Amino acid sequence: MTDHRPYFRAVNRVPPYDAEASALDDLVDQGRHGDADAFARLVKATQPRVHRWALAFARDSDEADDLVQEVFVIALRERLTALVLRYWRELPERQRVVLDLVDLQGHAPMVAAEMLELNPATLRANLFKARQTMRRRLVAQLGENTPWSDR
Hints:
By secondary structure, the protein is an all-alpha fold. The chain has helices at residues 5-12, 19-32, 36-57, 61-89, 93-104, 109-116, 120-142. The protein folds into 2 domains: 19-89, Rna Polymerase Sigma Factor, Chain: A (Orthogonal Bundle), CATH 1.10.1740; 91-142, Arc Repressor Mutant, subunit A. Helix 3 (36-57) runs antiparallel to helix 4.
């Protein structure tokens, strides 16, 4: 009978935590907090490894390329979601509530005004300010080449 214990010890051994891993952790944290440059550096630093990982699961190089793209698109979506939530939470309460009712829940502005017992003009003004603030902050963080920068 063969003794498999040395193999299992080798497989279960955790590699030491090194400076490169620490630097990548820092980039992840910075990217989560909205640093676009850190996110770009993280993608550049990890893309070869992610591609090698994808090749292990894919049938061919093209499928691996698609998997790599999907990984980074998901990461970018998560980053964008975190930024939007952070900036939404930082809005004044009235703007946050108005934006939530109209843009997220889909209520018509007149209905939202009635729900909040606000003058419709006041609601529209708060909605405009909230959208402008969100747009300005996202463009400042992510750059001019964003879908909402031309509005």
